[in-house]
Design a protein that fits this description.
Layout lengths: L1 E3 L2 H9 L5 E6 L5 H13 L2 E6 L19 H10 L4 E3 L3 H4 L18 H4 L3 H16 L3 E5 L3 H13 L5 E5 L19 H22 L5 H12 L3 E9 L13 E9 L2 E8 L1
Parallel strand pairs: 1-4, 2-3, 2-5, 3-4, 5-6
Antiparallel strand pairs: 7-8, 8-9
Helix pairs in contact: 6-7, 8-9
The chain binds pantoate.
The site of pantoate (PAF) has 10 residues, from strand 2 and helix 6.
């Protein structure tokens, strides 16, 4: 596995490669969720590039940038064992200068759900993803469905800015008890982790209601909110795949999303129906 930290050097290296390139952008602290993205990228492409970059611009003031788990050596090992060809490992100074051009998230879709309580977060995400895609110029790029709003906004950016990369959504990976994998799960104490399980169980309840023919969004949201209490709930929403609210679940076109705070940790999860 080649490790490159300079954007220019990586561009130069990839310029001579005529194979399909699959790209998995990450902020490190890799877990099985990231490994499933890498696996998918390996299945579909000849070369796999992973980036490991804790992007400061997507953290708001007072958020967890300083305490975000950092496991650089373990991450490199995971990439190597997963058969990654190139690991892009830049410093913030390699990625950002002063007086920067940036990408702005759309004024509506970028400021609802997670974007409402983290105003500006998606500007940072889209800017860094645009930079990374321009550096790697991949055939396909892989993003988890767990961060459904991020995935939606990146797909929108690629479409609206006429970019040629294919964005590939990858299913959420869960612990045996249902907890969706996330680097931020590392913040949870034993007791908080038990509380966190309410998120996945509320989604299982929603799915069971739909299986029994209950399609009314209000009924589903009410049942989920009851299950999530007394956690702080940012939102529970039933949306279509374009992120517009649905009064009734439409099978094949629905995402049910939830975000809560367990102690100081934000947890988000969703199911695609
Ligand atoms: O999902 C993430 O890990 C990050 O938001 C991403 C896409 C790597 C951009 O920093």
């Amino acid at each position: 596995m080649k490790i490159i930290s300079s954007p220019r050097e990586l561009k130069e290296y990839l310029k001579n490669i005529n194979n399909t390139v699959g790209f998995v952008p990450t902020m490190g602290a890799l877990h099985e969720g990231h490994i499933s993205l890498i696996k998918k990228a390996k299945e579909q492409n000849e070369i796999v590039v992973v980036s490991l970059f804790l992007n400061p611009t997507q953290f708001l003031k007072g958020e967890d940038l300083e305490k975000y788990p950092k496991k650089d050596e373990a991450d490199k090992k995971i990439c190597q064992l997963s058969g990654v060809d190139v690991l892009f490992f830049p410093q913030a100074s390699d990625m950002y200068g002063v007086d920067e051009v940036s990408i702005l998230a759309p004024k509506v879709r970028g400021y609802v759900l997670e974007g409402e309580s983290r105003a500006g977060h998606f500007n940072g995400v889209l800017t860094v993803v645009m930079k990374l895609l321009n550096i790697v110029n991949p055939t396909r790029a892989y993003f988890g469905k767990k961060d459904a709003q991020q995935l939606n906004l990146i797909s929108l950016m690629v479409k609206q800015l006429f970019m040629s990369v294919e964005i590939v959504p990858v299913d959420t990976v869960r612990e045996k008890d249902g907890l969706a994998l996330s680097s931020r799960n590392a913040y949870l104490s034993k007791e908080e982790r038990v509380q966190a399980l309410k998120v996945a169980s509320s989604l299982r309840t929603a799915s069971a209601m739909v299986s029994k023919g209950v399609l009314n969004s209000y009924e589903i949201i009410t049942a989920m909110r009851e299950m999530l209490a007394p956690l702080e709930i940012f939102y529970v929403e039933v949306l279509d795949r374009e992120f517009s609210p649905l009064s009734h679940v439409e099978i094949g076109n629905t995402i049910i999303l939830v975000e809560v705070k367990v102690a100081t940790t934000r947890l988000l999860d969703n199911i695609w129906l």
